[in-house]
Design brief:
This protein is an alpha/beta fold. The protein has helices at 26-41, 65-84, 95-98, 100-105, 125-133, 179-183, 191-203, 234-244, 263-271, 288-294, 300-313, 332-345, 372-395, and strands at residues 16-22, 44-46, 55-60, 89-94, 115-117, 138-140, 161-165, 167-168, 187-188, 208-212, 250-254, 278-280, 318-325, 349-354, 401-409, 416-421, 426-430, 439-447, 452-456. Strand 18 and strand 19 (452-456) form a beta hairpin. It binds iron/sulfur cluster (SF4). The site of iron/sulfur cluster has 10 residues, from helix 6.
Length: 460
């Protein structure tokens, strides 16, 4: 993991080292780039090796139990390291730090941790680091977010790609989800601020921009009227960015909520040149009973009808999804409904999860918790089905010529170059030395479940 050292960071002797351990979703990935920016300004360079670090900071996730378990396991190792090297500072931030039981534990079994802050006050990091430097133990976790803070530093992990937040938090309160409790209620950034960040990114060499939010297509809540619109909405924002960004930039967005996919959005994605033909639309389940208990706000047939409209408007667009098994009360019949929807939806790929009870969520207290054995059996059957579909969808691209943005050598074979299509599919082809960010044309000759192989079509 290489972060570019930003301007204004002193590379002189005495630069301290920080290890930033990141768990979870793209929101955390984006937050890690802000935190890395602040660490750089505070005189830290980033290291992969905690043994030489002055500070080890865990940017945590609590969307599922296993993410928490991993962080707690690593914290245990850090505690031992700190015992051996008392000068080492250890910090925790991110969604787990927002949880009530962690905040309590910071006063008890986690009281050895030197620094703790949450998801609502990342912008306070310069002051928190200064207080840490003064020898203070710093625990500052806000209950609620305040106004949307702009001009956050960013140290991008990938010089070609940028994540740009457009909304924070979520108002949907799906019954299994902890996000609204740890990331707060939904708030949108201003159009001008998002446009400025995207244009700056493009100016710094970024070619692929992903607009980020828990529900990007609910964008605009709380914003003032704009251009005759009661409030700027997601299609409006896409239009502004499509116009403002230079040719050759690819615009993506995640995550969309199926209940907010409307004709204006479908039309915008279909007609705006820089907006890639790709949707991430979590369906979560296929049984209307389970969807109702999840508070998802749509039915299986409603979801499939929306998908049909999306695909009619953008033939060949890629659709990925999130699917959960083992939600409380889910019967074998309900699970078969999920398999039936997956069969019909033919997603390009899907993130599949086993339901994990989250403290404080409505589903945690629901009856009919599904035994672990059944959850394991269902997730295996779901993954088998989805992999078959992903392979079949990819085989449908054999013989086609795709526009691919070159990224670099394939990780497995240096003689092969790799890049992504507009539909975000990974492609490998036999060539070397293609400039990262360059758009090339590749004829697809072979398909596998998660990658395509081909030959350069436009080599001069
Ligand atoms: S939409 Fe539902 S699942 Fe997604 S972040 Fe919001 S509450 Fe969680």
């Amino acid at each position: 993991m290489i972060y570019e050292i930003p301007d204004g960071v002193c590379m002189t002797e005495g630069l301290r080292l920080a290890k930033l351990v990141v768990y979870g979703c793209q929101m955390n990935e984006r937050d890690s780039e802000t935190i890395a920016g602040y660490l750089g300004k505070a005189g830290y360079a980033l290291t992969e090796d905690e043994r030489g670090a002055d500070l080890v900071l865990y940017l945590t996730c609590c969307v599922r139990g296993n993410a928490e378990d991993r962080a707690l396991g690593n914290l245990g190792q850090a505690k031992r390291l700190k015992k051996a090297r008392p000068g080492l500072k250890v910090g925790i931030c991110g969604c787990m730090a927002q949880e009530g039981w962690v905040r309590e534990a910071l006063g008890g079994r986690l009281s050895w941790i030197d620094l703790a802050f949450g998801t609502h006050n990342i912008h306070r990091l310069p002051e928190l680091l200064a207080r840490l430097d003064s020898g203070e133990r710093v625990v500052e976790v806000w209950d609620f977010p305040q106004e949307v803070v702009e001009d956050l530093p960013v140290l991008r992990k990938d010089p070609l790609k940028a994540f740009v937040n457009i909304t924070y938090g979520c108002d949907n309160f799906c019954t299994y989800c902890i996000v609204p409790y740890v990331r707060g209620r939904e708030r949108s950034r201003g159009v001008k601020e998002i446009e400025a960040e995207c244009v700056e990114a493009a100016g710094s060499g970024v070619k692929d921009i992903t607009l980020l939010g828990q529900n990007v297509n609910a964008y605009g809540k709380g914003l003032a009227p704009a251009d005759g619109l009661e409030r700027p909405d997601f299609p409006y924002l896409l239009g502004v960015l499509d116009e403002a960004l230079p040719e050759g930039i690819r615009l993506r967005f995640t995550t969309s909520h199926p209940r907010f996919v409307d004709d204006r959005m479908i039309e915008a994605v279909a007609s705006l040149k820089k907006v890639c033909e790709q949707y991430h639309l979590p369906v979560q389940a296929g049984s209307d009973k389970v969807l109702g208990m999840m508070n998802r706000g749509y039915t299986a047939s409603g979801y499939l009808a929306m998908l049909d409209r999306v695909r009619k408007a953008v033939p060949g667009c890629a659709v990925t999804s999130d699917i959960m098994v083992g939600f409380p009360g889910e019967t074998e019949e309900d699970f078969l409904d999920t398999l039936a929807v997956v069969e019909e939806a033919r997603f390009d790929a899907a993130f599949t999860f086993v339901y994990s009870p989250r403290k404080g969520t409505a589903a945690e207290a629901m009856p009919g918790q599904v035994p672990e054995e059944e959850k394991k059996d269902r997730i295996k059957r779901l993954i088998d089905l989805q992999n078959r579909i992903s392979l079949s969808v990819n085989r449908g691209l054999v013989g086609k010529v795709e526009e691919v943005m070159a990224e670099g050598p394939s990780e497995k074979d240096p003689g092969m170059w790799s890049g992504r299509t507009r539909t975000n599919k990974m492609v490998h082809w036999p060539e070397t030395g293609v400039a990262p960010g360059r758009l090339v044309r590749v004829r697809i000759e072979r398909a596998r479940t998660f990658v395509l192989h081909g030959t350069r079509e436009d080599r001069t």
